[in-house]
Write a structure and sequence with these properties.
The protein has helices at 5-43, 51-64, 69-72, 75-78, 81-97, 99-126, 131-148, 160-169. The chain is an all-alpha fold.
Length: 170
């Protein structure tokens, strides 16, 4: 970090040429995210007969793509959004073929999400942030990819058992 005004001005001058490239990269990424989001939104109405899965997907998407998701999400996490949304689309494709599979996988996932949600609400009420709980939240998104669209792969190994152990450690 700069320690005085001169160091700050020097850092600003160093960063200025990269600013345009960063803006282009963020714009490209957001375009990709919104393209995947739009594809999912077009698919969802055809699945009204699978109310539980559609409700879960809508909640997931609303958590990911909120009003200020670009500013509120760290860039390293934002980079994974296209894969998360692609996994939702693949989940819908697989839902047609085997709704029982989707329900079984959701039953495995749900207790982990409930634990996270309770803890996150408690921490929010206390005005405290907990990096490990935040990391767990993103691991839950990776678990969704692993469960519903395994062929998209996750950056690190993730499973229900691993996340249960991780949660116990919290």
């Amino acid at each position: 970090w700069p320690t005085d005004a001169d160091a700050f001005r020097a850092r600003c001058a160093e960063a200025k040429p990269r600013l345009g490239l960063l803006a282009q990269e963020i714009s490209r990424l957001v375009g990709q995210i919104l393209g995947e989001w739009h594809a999912v939104q077009k698919k969802l109405p055809a699945f009204k007969s699978h109310a539980a899965a559609v409700q879960d997907i809508e909640k997931q998407i609303s958590r990911l793509i909120g009003k200020r998701f670009i500013a509120a999400t760290p860039f390293e996490r934002l980079q994974h959004f296209p894969r998360y949304l692609k996994a939702v689309s693949m989940r819908l494709d697989k839902l047609k073929a085997d709704p029982a599979r989707d329900a079984r996988l959701m039953a495995e996932y749900a207790p982990l999400w409930t634990n996270y949600e309770r803890r996150a609400l408690l921490l929010a009420k206390q005005g405290v942030s907990h990096p490990q709980v935040e990391q767990f939240r993103w691991m839950l998104e990776e678990l969704r990819v692993q469960l519903f669209a395994q062929e998209l792969r996750t950056p690190a190994p993730v499973s229900v058992k691993r996340l249960q152990k991780m949660w116990e450690g919290l």
